[in-house]
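[READ THE FOLD]
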Amino acid sequence: MFLFFRHFFIALQFFTRIPVTGRLADWVGFSPAMLRASAAHFPGVGWVVGGLSAAVFAGLLALLPASPAAPWVAAVLSTAFSVWLTGAFHEDGLADTADGLGGAVNRERALAIMKDSRIGSYGAVALVLALLCKVALLALLAQAGGLQLASAALLGAHVSSRLMPLFIIRTLPHVGDTPTSKSKPLAESIGNAGLAAGLLWWALAMALVGWALPGAPWPLAVLGALLGLAWMWRLLRRRLQGFTGDGLGATQQVCEVAFYLGMALGLGWRA
């Protein structure tokens, strides 16, 4: 159990701006093997990012004047907070993946484009559209389902969308630039036990939101995330014959938006 949480804190430090220092860092320790094992706790990082983002969202709606614009303001600022908290880690991956795969280029050229730190037209458009989708869907969920549902959806989406890349790591080979890739330390770390740990983080989150709001369309939200995973898996396999760190970030972003969309469609069908 102690090793479980030590791996979780390494993942938290790797994927967020939250520092792990002092006595906590001494207790956690570090080794390449521990970093590989920490990939299983990517959904656990979703608990922290999603929970804090939900708290920001709920707090803002409680403090803002009652107005149709209030959910939009809360959605924008909570999304900005989540981007800051993760250092735009996954958004950067989405932009690079869109630039690399957006044009009709071969595999080698796509990989070279994805390693370029500059953002191109495809990346800029993908990033703007993804952020707009998040904000609009969160505002819609708050207006159609209430504050509690939108806040719970934030937690569920962040955890679920961070589970999905584990299946890509599990089933596709790593094809990034091995010496400098951020994802290479994680690329061979998902065995059965690691995947089970990721699923445990996810199951606990879904049990919590399902208990809090049993009537919400959680199955459709999860289905949306799974469809996002299937699309990204097929795209990465067809265009790159494997995954890169940018592809994992793009998968998280796509699955997060798809989770919100599934939830929103479920509310519409139920109405």
In short: DSSP finds twelve helices and no strands in the chain. The radius of gyration is 18 Å. The chain has a mean pLDDT of 91.
